[in-house]
Design brief:
Signal peptide (chain B): 1-22
Radius of gyration of chain B: 16 Å
Order of helices and strands of chain B: HHHHHHH
Organism (chain B): Ciceribacter naphthalenivorans
Helix content of chain A: 25-40%
CATH topology of chain B: Cytochrome Bc1 Complex, Chain D, domain 2
Strand order of the largest sheet of chain A: 10-9-11
Oligomer: heterodimer
Shape of chain A: globular
Domain Cytochrome c (chain B): 46-152
CATH architecture of chain B: Orthogonal Bundle
CATH architecture of the largest domain in chain A: Orthogonal Bundle
Number of domains of chain B: 1
CATH superfamily of chain B: Cytochrome c-like domain
Number of helices of chain A: 10
Strand content of chain B: under 5%
Distance between the termini of chain A: 24 Å
Low-confidence stretches of chain A: 1-6
Mean pLDDT of chain B: 89
Structural class of chain B: mainly alpha
Radius of gyration of chain A: 18 Å
Protein name (chain B): Sulfur oxidation c-type cytochrome SoxX
Distance between the termini of chain B: 50 Å
Helix content of chain B: 25-40%
CATH class of chain B: Mainly Alpha
Largest sheet of chain B: none
Number of strands of chain A: 11
Strand content of chain A: 5-15%
Pfam families (chain B): Cytochrom_C
Structural class of chain A: alpha+beta
CATH topology of the largest domain in chain A: Cytochrome Bc1 Complex, Chain D, domain 2
Number of helices of chain B: 7
CATH class of the largest domain in chain A: Mainly Alpha
Largest interface: A-B, 29 and 33 residues
């Protein structure tokens, strides 16, 4: 219609960053509701896509640089920086971020990159855990994930009790929340490719996080995005890193297996 | 409950328009006849101009988030999650439209993505300040229905 959407499908375009081609569509894993999984990049407007494709134009790259600074900065009572133990992140952290969430045998829970950073800070550095969405937390996470740019997302559901967290995440994904009575699946599965107001609905993939958003002019962490989507159903928001959101992260990460890590992706 | 009812009765006795208040049907008392709701929720006829505002307003109906409505083209960004509402009055009667707006999961499809605008059958963990509240008031539903019945003869 004249006032409706101009297009609906993911675009037919290739994403190349720093000469490396990203996997933005790939065959879905066994048991997935879609045949093919798509990066959120394919649903954004041409200008947004071009900004992500150009590392010099991508404002998220400033956050990567900031992350490198923190990586090399001593903090805490042990007098160490991340680099004191891990050295050059382009070597020690290469492809590491693509494999989170991981099972943490001590905590008996899955952890994400943010929580692994807190582990090292509290257990190895004598520093405090970061507050949720602290600038340093987002910067270091962005820096670590960026060391996996182009690497396909892969998680080990065989470790510990990952499978039962996957199940729990799946249940949550299909549970309707809030006064508007909507589930993640209502928007990102049933309405994928459609417009909700001005927003072109993607599959809600996590491979670009933390992402740079023009809207807010800053980086958005994954749990912030989850919380925002839940808030939009007019529901109470679960806490960041709560069992609910960790279970969702495990399940939603699985829904995008094989897509390249694109951190820092660019969104409107 | 009894206490609330007694207070309400006292309040309505003093109110300037006791009939209008008394006639309003609470969300839990809405009676469906199949997929339709035959009686007005308020007894006060709907105002189509107010209804159009409710359709467009993001904090009220926000119907345009999901539906295209060509006569409201001056409003930006109509979504296409759902079918266009153009000509919807050729497909449904006012009583059926009331049923759809009150609770599409009752009237259209139990798995509908469309929120129920005058029902307490909602999702889990509803935001605390909205518990027990409907998205629209009874009169807003009547206004929306009054607007929808003007959507005839889709081109």
């Amino acid at each position: 219609g004249s006032v409706g959407a101009a297009f609906a499908d993911p675009v037919d375009d290739k994403l190349v960053i720093d000469g490396k081609e990203m996997i933005t569509r790939t065959k879905a894993p066994e048991g997935h509701p879609f045949d093919e999984v798509y990066s959120g990049w394919l649903f954004r407007e041409a200008e947004t896509r071009a900004t992500e494709a150009d590392s010099f134009a991508n404002p998220g790259m400033l956050t990567v640089e900031r992350g490198e600074e923190i990586w090399n900065t001593i903090d805490g009572t042990a007098g160490k920086s991340c680099a004191s133990c891990h050295g050059d992140a382009s070597v020690s952290m290469k492809d590491i971020g693509a494999n989170y969430p991981k099972w943490d045998a001590t905590a008996k829970k899955p952890i994400n990159v943010e929580l692994q950073i807190d582990k090292c800070r509290t257990e190895k550095m004598g520093a405090e855990a970061y507050k949720f969405d602290a600038e340093e937390q987002k910067s270091l996470t962005t820096y670590i994930k960026h060391q996996s740019l182009g690497t396909p997302v892969a998680i080990d559901l065989g470790a510990g009790e990952m499978q039962s967290w996957w199940e729990k995440g799946k249940t949550l994904y299909y549970t309707r929340t809030g006064q508007l009575n909507l589930s993640c699946a209502n928007c990102h599965e049933n309405s994928m490719g459609k417009f909700i107001r001005a927003d072109h609905l993607s599959q809600g993939q996590v491979n670009g996080f933390p992402t740079y958003r023009f809207n807010t002019g800053g980086m958005v962490s994954l749990h912030n995005r989850f919380r925002g989507c839940i808030r939009d159903t007019r529901a109470e928001m679960p806490k960041a890193f709560s069992d609910e959101l960790m279970a969702l992260e495990v399940y939603v990460t699985w829904r995008g297996l094989g897509l390249s890590v694109e951190t820092p992706a660019v969104r409107q | 409950m009894k206490l609330v009812a007694a207070c309400l009765a006292a309040a309505t006795a003093l109110a300037p328009f006791p009939m209008a208040v008394a006639a309003e049907i609470a969300p839990a008392d809405v009676k469906y006849d199949g997929a339709t709701i035959t009686t007005s929720l308020t007894g006060t006829p709907g105002n189509p101009e107010e209804g159009a505002k409710v359709l467009a307003n993001r904090s009220l109906g926000n119907c345009l988030a999901c539906h295209v409505v060509t006569p409201l083209a001056k409003e930006q960004f109509h979504g296409d999650v759902a079918p266009s509402l153009d000509g919807v009055a050729d497909r449904w009667s006012a009583e059926q439209l009331r049923g759809i707006v009150v609770n599409a999961k009752h009237s259209l499809n139990p798995d509908s993505v469309m929120p129920g605008f005058y029902t307490l059958e909602v999702g889990i963990n509803v935001r605390k300040d909205l518990v027990g509240k409907t998205i629209l008031t009874a009169q807003q539903v009547e206004d929306v229905v009054a607007y929808l019945v003007t959507l005839k003869d889709a081109k």
